[in-house]
What does this fold into?
Amino acid sequence: MKVLVDTNVLLDVLCNRKEFVADSLRVFQRCEAQHITGYISALSIPNIVYIMRKELDPEKIREILHTLTMVFSVVELREGDLLKAAELPFDDYEDAIQSVCAARVRADYIVTRNGKDFVNSSVPALSPSVLLKQL
It folds into this structure.
């Protein structure tokens, strides 16, 4: 199974968001153990760094980025992805980009806590808990 993991699920783990970390961490671990083929959009990387830069020193951020690239394949952004995302009926351009990237790598699911943001996605969105129940 191939999944594109949305930025919010990654941040649940990296920021230890108590309400969400358990299921998000289990998804992360399944990708790390290669029970699931995990992808992240290149867009997620600068968003994560931007959010975490106030809390962590540059060395810790480098360690996190190294870990992310060891666990997940990073889907590069192409010009066509950006243009295609702009044409999709999404309220949030970032979500449209995630959807386009997921479709390009032929992911089975987008793993996100914001499923409602992906109702117009060609790749279905599942929460971490729903994905885990399907495994």
